[in-house]
Specification:
With about 260 residues, this protein is mainly alpha-helical. The chain has helices at about 1-5, 40-45, 55-60, 80-90, 100, 105-140, 145-150, 155-190, 200-205, 220-235, 240-245, 250-255, and strands at about 15-20, 25-30, 195, 215. It contains 12 helices and 4 strands. A two-stranded antiparallel sheet has the order 1-2. The chain is elongated. About 5% of the residues are buried.
């Protein structure tokens, strides 16, 4: 789009191409603009022009030849294995590069973004831990009288601790299930209708070659992993009421 604006060209106009062909030959041709593309990457919009492979090969007098071939993998986890296999297959006459080797700046951006994500997750879970601990603390203080009565009538401390542990496990599992089920429709909606960024943030992302949108993932492993983390935090926090119960004295607990 930007290149078309610079050339003051529209769909249906004819462009004259002058350049170098195969082995230094002169390449020249007339081409009719059939469409305008927006790649959401300013650098590509300003400098790129696309045509069919056969047309380009004829223009530069290189029939059946290509300068580069891009392979898109269905599973990114197969990147290194595929790279090794292609290098062994093509030999030293061809250069095989991964996207990380071809665009190290993009790799650095991905690593930086991932690190920011870990930091944000840590802060989020820290807040969640304090909120959950506040709930556990309040519930423990409110049940001191009840637990003191149970101990006074002869209930063993081990059974009281097991009772508290089972209650917390049960409540935590229900909370995780409800959270995952409630978040499912929200994630599905924003997966189909991603959040579109505007303003300076959108321009900054476009300059880095990233679409200025925030889509939600439907990968079930995300909900499973975060659910297990919350469940683990809950299991750690349950140690507090168990420690209180271990030192609890029935006479003091039953004082109002």
């Amino acid at each position: 789009i930007d290149l078309a604006d610079y050339l003051d060209a529209q769909v249906g106009d004819t462009l004259v191409y002058l350049g170098s062909g195969y082995q230094g030959a002169t390449a020249a041709g007339l081409f009719v603009i059939s469409g305008l593309l927006d790649f959401h990457i300013p650098e590509l919009n300003r400098s790129s022009c696309y045509m069919g492979l056969a047309t380009l090969q004829d223009l530069i007098d290189a029939p059946g030849l290509i300068t580069a071939l891009v392979i898109s993998l269905e599973k990114p986890s197969d990147l290194e294995e595929t790279n090794t296999e292609l290098k062994n297959l093509m030999g030293a006459d061809y250069e095989v590069m991964t996207w990380e080797e071809l665009a190290p700046d993009v790799k650095q951006l991905v690593v930086t973004s991932g690190s920011k994500g870990y930091i944000m997750n840590f802060i989020l879970y820290l807040i969640i831990s304090f909120v959950m601990f506040g709930t556990v603390l309040m519930a423990t203080q409110e049940r001191k009288f009840e637990l003191g009565v149970l101990l006074a009538i002869g209930m063993k401390r081990s059974k009281s601790m097991l009772l508290v542990l089972n209650e917390n496990i049960f409540i935590s599992i229900i909370g995780v299930i409800v959270g995952v089920v409630a978040a499912g429709p929200i994630a599905f909606y924003f997966n189909r209708n991603p959040i579109v960024l505007t303003g300076d943030g959108a321009e900054a992302m476009a300059e880095m070659g990233i679409d200025p949108v925030i889509p939600f993932s439907l990968d079930p492993s995300i909900a499973l992993n975060h659910g297990l983390i919350v469940l683990t935090i809950s299991m750690i926090l349950v140690l507090y009421p168990i420690l209180i119960l271990r030192k609890l004295k029935p006479v003091e607990a039953m004082k109002i």
